[in-house]
Write a structure and sequence with these properties.
Bound molecules: 1,6-di-O-phosphono-beta-D-glucopyranose, magnesium ion
Largest sheet: 6 strands, parallel
CATH class of the largest domain: Alpha Beta
Radius of gyration: 17 Å
CATH superfamily of the largest domain: HAD superfamily/HAD-like
């Protein structure tokens, strides 16, 4: 029998970069005179950089040129990367390391499945690159979450059936992507927001090893 494979989202699951994305988008929205709240930010989690800006502009009923669009994307990313620059292993969210170490010890295949084009930079900063046999990020997919491409690609590269994959996600888009791929979805965050997930935990700290064992073949 094949082993269960575990796919981890990055932003908001392994590290709290979701707050940095929020600050950078909020700052950009402010300069465009667009109202941007935490509720709206939920709709950007897991969504690609380009689609995030498209959504913000639509919320503000703004039309801009292709050149300005590109400039704004660069501006947002530069602002975001200023926060990323200072990241260290201390930024790994509580409860993550015990689960990663347990899965590593049991030789369970693990992949990263992130929409971020900065995923590799962040993984290096927090020294987690070596935990993942496979890394699929915003540079290797053509369709962003909620499209399941990122997770399907990760499963293929792990040589694992979709139905044998477990996905940890903090975003509505990511949970939808995992469900569409016929994978088990574990939401990290609010049960109200992530109500489509198969299981939801407020944070990784609440995920105990017996639960992880219950997911394993
Ligand atoms: P970047 P994840 C996603 O990462 C973030 O949740 C989302 O807010 C961000 O817009 C997207 O990555 C693209 O990120 O601008 O760094 O390429 O949660 O899928 O790990
Ligand atoms: Mg995320």
């Amino acid at each position: 029998m094949k082993k269960t494979c575990f796919i981890f989202d990055l932003d908001g699951v392994l590290v709290d970069t979701a707050k940095f994305h929020f600050i950078a988008w909020q700052n950009l929205a402010m300069t465009l005179d667009i109202d941007f709240t935490e509720t709206k930010n939920e709709q950007l989690k897991g969504v690609s950089r380009i689609q995030s800006l498209e959504k913000i502009l639509a919320w503000g009923n703004k039309c801009i040129s292709a050149d300005t669009f590109k400039q704004l994307l660069t501006k947002k990313n530069e602002h975001y990367l200023r926060y990323v620059k200072g990241m260290t292993t201390k930024d790994i969210l509580p409860g993550v390391m015990p689960v990663l170490n347990f899965l590593k010890e049991k030789e369970c295949p693990m992949a990263l499945g992130s929409s971020s084009k900065n995923a590799q930079t962040i993984l290096n900063k927090i020294e987690l690159t070596n935990y993942f046999k496979v890394i699929v990020d915003g540079n290797s997919v053509t369709k962003a979450k909620p499209n399941p491409e990122v997770f399907i690609k990760a499963a293929q590269l792990l040589n694992c059936l979709n139905s044998q994959c477990v996905v940890f996600e903090d975003s509505i888009a990511g949970i939808q992507a995992a469900n569409t791929a016929n994978m088990q979805s574990i939401g990290i965050g609010s049960a109200e927001i992530l109500n489509e997930a198969h299981f939801v935990f407020p944070s990784f700290e609440e995920i105990k090893i017996p639960f992880i064992q219950s997911l394993m073949n």
